[in-house]
Design goal:
125 residues; alpha+beta; five-stranded mixed beta sheet; globular
């Protein structure tokens, strides 16, 4: 059975919630998420907003591509298999994208490569 994009989105969001709960953070979900804010956590009393983005594999299967539509969320959370990667949104209100390498490229390049493993920590903790 092929999953719909809505089901994939719900599964991804649940993975992010579980990851945040494992970090001992309190997780809140808006009643209506039409503002591109999927989750909220409080850190030292300050609200940190999160948008969950599922990803697409690049042709080589060595990296994942993330496309972010304009959002004011503080963090973009990207579920991938059993992990979640957290990217601070430094371009609020703008469309942007990036690729994260999930393994070393075939050409062994390591300089100027964004490795997914470097985004495992929540940026505000």
């Amino acid at each position: 059975m092929k999953l719909t994009t809505i089901r994939k989105g719900i599964i991804g969001q649940e993975k992010v919630k579980a990851s945040l709960l494992r970090m001992n953070l309190d997780v809140y979900e808006p009643v209506c998420d039409d503002k591109a804010i999927d989750l909220l956590v409080l850190i030292k009393g300050e609200p940190i907003t999160i948008q969950v983005k599922n990803h697409k594999f690049m042709n080589t299967l060595s990296s994942i591509a993330i496309r972010v539509t304009p959002t004011d969320a503080d963090v973009i959370a990207v579920p991938y298999k059993e992990e979640v990667f957290y990217i601070r949104n430094r371009k609020k209100g703008k469309q942007w994208g990036l690729s994260l390498a999930v393994k070393t490229p075939k050409n062994n390049q390591k300089l100027k490569v964004r490795f997914a493993k470097d985004y495992k920590e929540f940026p505000y903790v």
